[in-house]
Amino acid sequence: MFGGFGGYLIYLAILLIIPIWAQWKVKSTYKKYSKVRNESNMTGAEVARRILDENGLYNVAVEEVKGMLSDHYDPRKKVVRLSSGNYHEPSAAAQAVAAHEVGHAIQDSEEYAFLKFRSALAPVASIGSNMSIFILIAGVLFSVSGLVLIGIIFMAFAVLFQFVTLPVEFDASNRAMNHLVSSGVIRNNEEKQTKKVLNAAALTYVASALVALLELIRFVLIFVGMNED
Question: Any transmembrane segments, and where (predicted)?
């Protein structure tokens, strides 16, 4: 993809800079809006419970989980888990994060196609993510193009998983905004604040997908080069 050693260094720098920048963006945005009190004075837990109930998801629990930005929805146990700060604090960030995770719960209840596809891909994508790099390195070191091809196939499933994740996350954020507005939880200029939190979080998924695609393309080019020699 990049010619020469200097080009390879540039490539490595890009691989490092993109995710680091995305992580910095989400953390700085979250930190800023976690200090901004929301006008409804509702904690993240209260926001999550309200939207869940409005959608008839009384069976989905809301629980506190340790860590920062460890928020997630567990489809197996039907639980929205919010990090301590988001669970207890009535901040602009907390309501955005809580609504986003509830968005995943709503997707699950409606059997959202991309969510089902991602869940089906998860096992093979996990294997691909963990094993592909070792297979690829072995193939390159020993000049075995067949091994490189196998590694590429495994990596492709991991990359596909990353890209299928994008519509799942964007849709959850759109659902979050719609429900926050329709339920009257956010008011006045809070819509802009909420979008900034959700958009910053989305950057991490875009960055991960982009980096994964660049790596896949690099090994495809290596494979093509090995077969041309």
Answer: 6-24, 120-142, 148-168, 197-224
Closest to 95 in 3D by CA, of 51, 59, 55, 29: 51
- Residues with Cβ within 8 Å of 20's Cβ and at least 6 positions away in sequence, in order, are none
Q: How far apart are CA 137 and CA 211, in angstroms?
A: 18
Distance CA 158, CA 212 (A): 8
Q: What is the set of active-site residues?
A: 101
Contact 118, 164 (CB under 8 A): yes
Phi, psi of 16 (to 5 degrees): -80, -45
**Alpha-carbon gap, residue 229 to 224, rounded angstroms:** 9
For 7-11, 163-167, 185-189, which range has the lowest pLDDT when averaged over its residues? Answer: 7-11
Half-sphere exposure of 42 (CA within 13 A, CB side): 20
Question: CB neighbours of 183 closer than 8 A, spacing ≥ 6?
Answer: 50, 51, 54
Instruction: Quote the CA–CA distance of 176 and 134 in Å, as a whole number.
Output: 39
**Contact between 139 and 145 (Cβ < 8 Å):** yes
Contact 146, 139 (CB under 8 A): yes
- The residues spanned by each domain of the chain are 4-228
For 93-149, what is each residue's pLDDT tens digit?
999 999 999 999 999 999 999 999 999 999 999 999 999 999 999 999 999 999 999
Q: Which two tokens stand for residue 78?
A: 């039907």
Residue ranges of alpha helices (H) inside the chain are 4-33, 44-54, 84-88, 92-109, 113-141, 145-182, 190-228
